[in-house]
Amino acid sequence: MLAGQPIIILRENVERTRGFEAQRSNIMAAKAIAAAVRTTLGPRGMDKMLVSSSGDVVITNDGATILHEMSVQHPGGKLVVEVAEAQDGEVGDGTTTATVLVGSLMEEAERLLAQEVHPTIIANGYQLGMEKALEILDELAITVVFGDRDDLLKIADTAMTGKSIEAVKDKIAGIVVDAVCQVASETGQGTYVVDEDDIKIKTQVGDSMHDANLIRGIVIDKKRVFEQMPTKVTDAKVALLALPLEVTKTQVKSKIKITSSDQMKAFSEQERESLQKLADQIVASGANVVLCQKGIADAVQYYLAKHGIYAVEDVKEEDMKFAAKALCGAIVNKPEELNAATLGHAEAAEEVPDADLTVISGCDNPKAVTILLRGTSQLLLDELERAVYDAARVVQDAIEDGKFVVGGGSVETELQLRIRDYAATVGGRVQLAIEAFANAFEVIPRTLAENSGFDTIDKVVDMRKVHADGAKYAGLNVYNGEVVDMREAGVIEPLRVKTQAIKSATETAMLLVRVDDMMITQAGKPGPQ
Q: Is 53 in a helix, a strand, or coil?
């Protein structure tokens, strides 16, 4: 008020929350989202059924999928969802871990705020704690070499444990490891890089999950273009054509005036000859399979079928590029450019019965492969696809970084003990924040025990004692409740997954805890200008 006149700073439709209420709002949002996915953590985690407004159903225990489908509205909650999405995008796994960790860090921050510890001190303590945690993680990391198939299988197995596809995880783990190792390329310095786009996952409803297999080639969602063509071609020599195999319209407007039947006949014969010439050039190149990005005219289909050539039309550009990589061939713009160097090679190309699929498999040293998954329902297939994606990404992470850590809550228990020791050397109020950061890690072993039906206090205390005695790889066996060596048990995951989870969770908690004022514009008519 100034001389009795109100001064309007904000619009009428802006809702403002300040001070501890703003902090409390963000803390509650983070805790609520963490609680929503917490029961899905670990091998004995539960699934969530998510039903959209249109009636679409998703059943999953994948943290990123759950949070994406939840349509979170709270601004602080959206930041927590972004943590899961960033985790999924960067490393492909550990989304639930990262989300639960954010909730735990915010819960610890709430306790410190109640003791009147300043948010800046909390953020500073969390930063110091994160740096120490990453340092300890490097010490705990174990080296994995490219050819160590056993460790890679264990990493893939750990990523898929707890999903709805437990019955086939051993077979799928082998398929995933073979796929990633096949497309990995050496950098020349003893390290490897993997392009995740070189592994395509295709799904087919109908058969059992046990029928999943690795295709050293490509699966295209189309069948042969003409019924008279063979359904299977062995020793496939594949022509990859970007041009249409038909008479196309000219670039400029033109008219042809035909005044007699002879002219019409000559015109038709010339068109047929030009189409036959296209087919003859393909036949002369030695190709017996044609993948065409555009359409194939009926006459060309007939000529190709006559020579026993299998052809597919209107293949997507993305599939054409993938096929070129998988078949070690080249996409050409003219049939006359086809030769032995540009043709792709595979053992066989065939049409899958009762499905609009063409499978080209058995390529020599392909640089792109396809994992074909089968299942009795689309819901099951979707979850299987998510599990395979997670497994492929973690194997990729392990191959590229060459390091992994053990699971079962082992790393978190070790971090909690060692960061608490580190906090004692810092002193001051920051020490309280570092201790709170250390305490936040307890949520992982506690949740694993809780989801497995064991007494959380007993198991957490047991793990602390074993780690205090020097067993740094000790973790919780969720099936019998014993504290065992996770390295020997084969419960391992890439270092990158754990590192990313700690970084993204800590940075988000630091960001949220420093917010003391929220101004939210409500939908509706604008206030006075």
A: coil
